[in-house]
Amino acid sequence: MTPDLFPEQFEGLTCLPGLAAGTAGQLWEAVQTIAAAAPFRQMVTPWGKKMSVGMTNCGAAGWVTDLSGYRYTETDPETGQPWPPMPKIFLDLAQNAAARGGFTNFTPDACLINRYAPGARMSLHQDRNERDFTAPIVSVSLGLPAMFLWGGPARTDKTNRILLENGDVLVWGGSARLYFHGIAPLKEGEHPLTGRARINLTFRRAM
After folding, report:
1. Can you list the alpha helix ranges (DSSP code H) found in 53-130?
2. Is the pTM of this model over 0.90?
3. Is residue 66 within 8 Å of residue 46, measured between CB atoms?
4. Please, which contacts does 79-88 make with residues 24 or more away whose CB atoms are closer than 8 Å?
């Protein structure tokens, strides 16, 4: 993890380099089990644009997007079944990271899992479809490195660039809960764990 500034200089953002590195293999196995029940898919935005990132979910709720808008659902629209349960190793990691970021008693009910292939990106956005903005966001990186873009409360604010590597974790909340953030286009590469992919686990309290 190589931030433009020291981590403590990012308002509301805690950087935890390598926190998940020791359990990355187990996390990746859990992702594959989840994807077997709820396959990755490239969702469509309300404006009809197919996203470059493959997505799936686990937990009591899952984030989805289609022509009718952004929202959380208790069932997978493609299968009609509840989203796979959140593995204990996911929950333990999310709660540990949140506590290190100053957010105790965090109990996520949703984990959005993004799969980035080389060239995939995530434009600047806010996580604002959740009902409880007092809870933090916990973001875990697995596999290929990616450049995280950390902005401010307005889309036009200057962005800082943070290189995220396998096992790095970010936590943000409080005054920065609705800050804009994104991922620059993923560079070509091959990772011994995930191959030509980066996996991002995003834990939220959605409902």
Report:
1. 88-100
2. yes
3. yes
4. 79/37, 79/38, 81/37, 81/38, 83/38, 83/57, 83/58, 83/59, 84/33, 84/34, 84/37, 84/38, 84/57, 84/58, 85/58, 85/59, 86/58, 86/59, 86/60, 86/111, 87/30, 87/33, 87/34, 87/58
Q: What's 38's DSSP letter? A: S
Contact 61, 74 (CB under 8 A): yes
Residue with tokens 């990755």: 40
Averaged pLDDT, groups of 10, the chain, 207 residues long: 53 94 98 98 94 98 96 96 98 98 96 98 96 96 98 94 97 96 98 98 97
Q: Are 162 and 120 in contact (CB under 8 A)?
A: no
> Of 146, 147, 135, 152, whose CA–CA distance to 203 is shortest?
135
